[in-house]
């Protein structure tokens, strides 16, 4: 699936906040998803992480809710349930390589749907190399 990715919350947050170091690269990619050129599949936990991070970093509940609505309203940004099989796959990944819980769920989602994982989380990248 060349045109399908899983976006970690660090990647989406970088695309939403112009003061982030990787903003340009991230916004270009996310814009392509929102325009329907690419598809992104991620667990609902990413939505929660992104909305919480936007609120914490900007102090704006209004902006956090706008981001939530925009992400949920995009046809090509697909959020999937964290069901038992996905949770078990994530738990196995966490046990194997020591990823944190939410990171393991994101990594498991990418593996389950055979997508390219886009993240700026340095610890996640380091552990996935193992």
For the biggest sheet, the summary is:
4 strands, parallel
On the 0 to 100 scale, the average pLDDT is 93
Top CATH class: Alpha Beta
The largest beta-sheet arranges its strands as 3-2-1-4
* CATH fold annotation: Rossmann fold
**Unreliable stretches covering 5 or more consecutive residues:** none
Characteristic key phrases:
Rossmann fold; 4-stranded parallel beta sheet; 7 helices; 63% helix
What does the model show?
The chain is globular, with a radius of gyration of 14 Å. The longest helix has 15 residues, at 44-58. Helix 1 packs across helix 2 (23-34) and helix 5 crosses helix 6. The protein has 130 residues and is of the alpha/beta class. The chain has a four-stranded parallel sheet. It has a single domain (4-116), classed as 5'-nuclease (Rossmann fold), CATH 3.40.50. It is built from seven helices and four strands. The chain has helices at residues 9-16, 23-34, 44-58, 61-73, 84-97, 101-113, 122-128, and strands at residues 4-7, 39-43, 77-80, 116-118.
């Amino acid at each position: 699936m060349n045109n399908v990715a899983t976006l970690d919350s660090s990647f989406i947050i970088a695309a939403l906040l112009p003061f982030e170091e990787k903003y340009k690269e991230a916004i270009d990619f996310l814009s392509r998803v929102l325009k329907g050129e690419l598809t992104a599949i991620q667990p609902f936990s990413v939505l929660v992480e992104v909305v919480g991070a936007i609120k914490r970093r900007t102090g704006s509940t209004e902006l956090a809710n706008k981001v939530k609505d925009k992400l949920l309203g995009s046809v090509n940004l697909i959020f999937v349930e964290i069901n038992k099989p996905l949770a078990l796959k994530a738990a196995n990944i966490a046990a194997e390589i020591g990823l944190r819980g939410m990171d393991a769920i994101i990594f498991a989602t990418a593996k389950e749907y055979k997508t390219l994982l886009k993240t700026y989380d340095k610890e996640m990248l380091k552990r996935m190399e193992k």
